[in-house]
Amino acid sequence: MGCTLICPQHFNRVKNDTSKVARSSTVPYQLNDYEKEMLQRHWESTVLAQEPDLFLKTMLASIQDSPKLLDIISCKMYDPGLENIAEWPKLQKMAKGNCAFFTRQIVTNRLEEKLVRQDSERLGAIHIQYAPYGFKPTFLDIWNSHIVELIETVTFPTDIDRLLFIKAFKILSTFLCTLMVMEYENSMQTVRHKERECMKPEVFMITK
């Protein structure tokens, strides 16, 4: 991870591998127009109105399920403790960021595939900063299952709205998490490649 300072010339040699970046484009975006409309109709007015702390609760449930997440979020710099973890500023900031990310996709981007893909790929690559502290893509599966469980407790105007919204949200959330994992793995492969390059001995040609 420290190769940037040790041998930056190797970083210059490794360009963005477009074939790796394009790998996430093979993941189908399966939301239809009606499902998009259902998400847009109920995301803020129904789900967030009833569960304003949806993402904080999701994080807390995920940490309870996998305490290792606490080390990752704190970057092993300190232990915030479990007693008052809901008041931990960093966790609250992450929860607000997650909420803003989903709201951006549903409300601002209006679930337009190109924009949703771009944002998800960027966010997946950013997660590489947590790799040294034990981050695993499986943590996203834990997070995803808990947010769905919480949304299932929300009261919708009709039972059919509830069923359709949850179905659409599962499609969206699974798509987002899948792209994030793929871009995270791509970034990890790039880092490993650069580290191997840094370990190669330099070859000097002596000419007369």
Arithmetic mean pLDDT: 83
Give the distance, in angstroms, between the N- and C-terminal Cα atoms. 38 Å
Whole-angstrom Rg: 20 Å
Q: Could you estimate the helical fraction of the residues in percent?
A: 55-70%
Taken together, the total number of domains comes to 1
CATH homologous superfamily assignment: Globins
- Secondary-structure class: mainly alpha
User: In percent, how much strand structure appears in the residues?
Assistant: under 5%
Per CATH, the class reads Mainly Alpha
Number of strands: 0
CATH topology: Globin-like
> H/E series, N to C?
HHHHHHHHHH
- CATH-defined architecture: Orthogonal Bundle
Low-pLDDT regions:
1-21
Shape: globular
Q: How does the major sheet shape up? A: none
